[in-house]
């Protein structure tokens, strides 16, 4: 993956360099930088396209704020220092929440600094928008035509890893309930949370508000909801297993075997039926296992959608 992305980034940056110099011989590096940052933390063409869109959108909004705040300041030291402080705070406060908002504050910061240097003008802000658009276009062309990897392939791989981790968590918790002191499901739960974070990131292009494929968007949301249900049942099962007085019901082994069979049916690409469990028992550990079985059974429908209506395109 790293080699593929390096080739894509190089191709996209090459396009941005040439096109950016046609726009401006002095500010062409804005386009190259935009291409580079669009590729950071992306793994599929869907993620890259969404990130490019968010970068352009954040730049547009940031330029609007630049006109309202940075241009009227005319580079005055004290107001500019305040504006820079606000922009830096905004960058770090929103970085983990929204790439669009982070880019908004980055643009405001750049406008403030160029105002301090006495070179800020509406033309310069318009040039930044144009160079950013060229950089995002370079990234889009690279992921579409240079060694493309679909969102479907990336998402499917992360979902399968998450499902296998669900089974591993279940096996460790069941072993702990059976009396094995060496069994420790906590590290597996932490791994599951990380994998679910990657699934959410890879599915993000499908649940984006501007995604026109409503059927795939609904299926993607359904998959995320059911995976969250699996994680909730796993956390409950691990909490029960941590209780030294928890029941060592002999039915745990059978329930864990059914979970293993369900995970294998969902991840091996076969057509085996994933059976829905009967009514959940009152015993806590078994209740969580039955809830997990039910979520896995319901996952079969969106994950096995026909090829013409997959979560993502081919």
Topology, pairings included?
Elements: H1 2-23, H2 29-39, H3 45-73, H4 77-94, H5 99-116, H6 122-145, H7 151-177, H8 186-203, H9 214-241, H10 251-267, H11 284-303
Helix pairs in contact: 1-2, 1-6, 2-3, 2-6, 3-5, 3-6, 4-5, 7-8, 7-9, 7-10, 8-9, 9-11, 10-11
Brief descriptors of the model:
single chain, 314 residues, mainly alpha, 0% strand, elongated
Write a brief structural summary.
Helices cover 74% and strands 0% of the residues. By secondary structure, it is mostly helical.
What does this structure look like?
The protein is mainly alpha-helical and 314 residues long. The chain contains 11 helices and no strands. The chain is elongated. The mean pLDDT is 87.
Q: For the report, how would you describe the main beta sheet?
A: none
Find the structural class using helix and strand composition: mainly alpha
Approximately how much beta-strand content do the residues carry?
A: under 5%
- How large is the radius of gyration? 25 Å
Helix and strand run: HHHHHHHHHHH
Strands, count: 0
């Amino acid at each position: 993956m790293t080699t593929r992305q390096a080739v894509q980034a190089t191709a996209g940056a090459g396009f941005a360099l040439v096109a950016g110099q046609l726009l401006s011989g002095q500010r062409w590096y804005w386009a190259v930088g935009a291409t580079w940052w669009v590729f950071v933390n992306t793994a599929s063409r869907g993620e890259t396209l969404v990130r490019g869109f968010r970068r352009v959108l954040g730049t547009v909004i940031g330029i609007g704020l630049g006109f309202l705040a940075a241009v009227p300041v005319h580079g005055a030291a004290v107001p500019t220092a305040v504006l820079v402080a606000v922009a830096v705070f905004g960058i770090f406060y929103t970085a983990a929440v929204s790439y669009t908002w982070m880019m908004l504050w980055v643009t405001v910061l750049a406008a403030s600094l160029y105002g301090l240097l006495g070179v800020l003008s509406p033309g310069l802000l318009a040039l930044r928008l144009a160079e950013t658009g060229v950089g995002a276009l370079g990234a889009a062309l690279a992921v579409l035509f240079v060694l493309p990897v679909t969102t479907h392939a990336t998402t499917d791989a992360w979902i399968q890893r998450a499902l296998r981790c669900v089974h591993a968590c279940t096996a460790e918790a069941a072993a702990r309930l059976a009396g094995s002191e060496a069994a420790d499901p906590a590290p597996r739960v932490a791994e599951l949370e990380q994998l679910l974070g990657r699934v959410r990131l890879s599915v993000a292009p499908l649940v984006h508000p501007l995604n026109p494929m409503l059927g795939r968007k609904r299926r993607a949301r359904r998959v995320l909801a059911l995976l969250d249900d699996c994680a909730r049942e796993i956390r409950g099962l691990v909490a029960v297993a941590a209780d030294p007085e928890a029941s060592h019901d002999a039915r745990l082994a059978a329930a864990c075997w059914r979970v293993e069979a369900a995970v294998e049916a969902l991840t091996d690409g076969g057509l085996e039926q994933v059976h829905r469990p009967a009514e959940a028992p009152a015993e806590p550990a078994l209740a969580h296992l039955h809830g997990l079985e039910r979520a896995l059974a319901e996952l079969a429908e969106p994950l096995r959608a026909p090829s013409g209506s997959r979560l993502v395109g081919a």
